[in-house]
Design a protein that fits this description.
By secondary structure, the protein is of the alpha/beta class. It is 28% helix and 26% strand. It has eight helices and 14 strands. It has a seven-stranded mixed sheet with strand order 6-5-4-3-2-1-14. Helix 2 crosses helix 3. The longest helix is centred in the N-terminal third of the chain and has 20 residues. The chain starts with a strand and ends with a strand.
Length: 267
């Protein structure tokens, strides 16, 4: 992978930005991670100039609506292209075992059969297990169970062929059991629901989330050189980046990024 294209940066209730999801680019192909909570994924991809026909790999981390419902729209559009003979190859969906039935059920209840008739034919589900390694677009991914306190959720670490290691720990706080996967990462993607100074207002801990301060102290302790914070509240988008950087840089000395929707991170 050589780029990360940010498609959304908000939490489940965000209306001033899209729900957190992103694409990793390698050559002309894309590895998509989650799809947000609806057909906004189609606008996000169009605005990022990412052709659906160049997405052959999708990872779905968990079943929360702000991560999974956009998957249905992707399946519908990929199915349309397959029906038209304009989608080359297969569409690969990576997820933990329980998500396979969830995705299939949501799809069959909401779109016509002609769009999902390719399930297990050209729309292929790949079940990921804790600690399992898979090669995707030439890079080595190791998937792991984040041991969510809510619904079962997986993250991953990827060792890219350019020598960079990136770790995505899902949308809950890092736990010490993930150290073996996170250690040595050049980049970490971590949630930060709000500023620590606003914890009483947004109550991140009740929602099993972190603050900017928490995530930055964590990255500092793990010696992570590059930290991306997202999955945030969206009450003041005009000043979110400025305010988050101001708080975060008090606790983290590395390269701190608070991306906006449609930002591109180059490795």
């Amino acid at each position: 992978m050589d780029q990360l294209i940010v498609l959304g940066t908000g939490n489940a209730r965000a209306i001033n930005c899209y729900n957190t999801c992103y694409a990793m680019k390698k050559n002309d192909e894309y590895f998509l991670v989650d799809a947000g909570g609806g057909n906004g994924i189609l606008s996000a991809l169009e605005n990022a100039h990412i052709p659906i026909k160049n997405i052959h790999h999708l990872f779905v981390s968990h079943a929360h609506t702000d991560h999974i419902l956009g998957v249905i729209w992707l399946i519908r559009l990929v199915g349309t292209f397959m029906n038209n003979g304009t989608y080359d190859g297969d569409f690969h969906i990576y997820c933990h075992k329980e998500l396979v039935d969830t995705i299939k059920t949501l799809t069959t209840l909401t779109v016509r059969k002609k769009f999902y008739k390719y399930f297990d034919d050209r729309m292929l589900f790949h079940i990921v297990e804790h600690g399992e390694i898979k090669t995707i677009l030439g890079d080595k991914f190791i998937f792991f169970d984040i041991e969510s306190t809510k619904d079962k959720q997986f993250g991953f670490a990827v060792n890219m062929d350019n020598g960079i290691k990136l770790t995505f720990v899902g949308d809950e706080p890092y736990r010490d059991n993930l150290h073996q996967f996170v250690q040595g990462s050049d980049w970490m993607l971590h949630e930060a629901f709000c500023l620590y100074s606003q914890r009483d207002r947004f109550k991140p801990y009740e929602k099993h989330h972190s603050t900017v301060k928490d995530a930055c102290q964590l990255a500092q302790s793990l010696n992570i050189p590059n930290l991306v914070l997202w999955h945030t509240e969206d009450h003041d988008m005009a000043h979110r980046q400025e305010n988050y950087l101001k708080e975060g840089q008090k606790y983290y000395s590395g390269n701190l990024l608070i991306p906006e929707d449609q930002d591109v991170i180059v490795f």
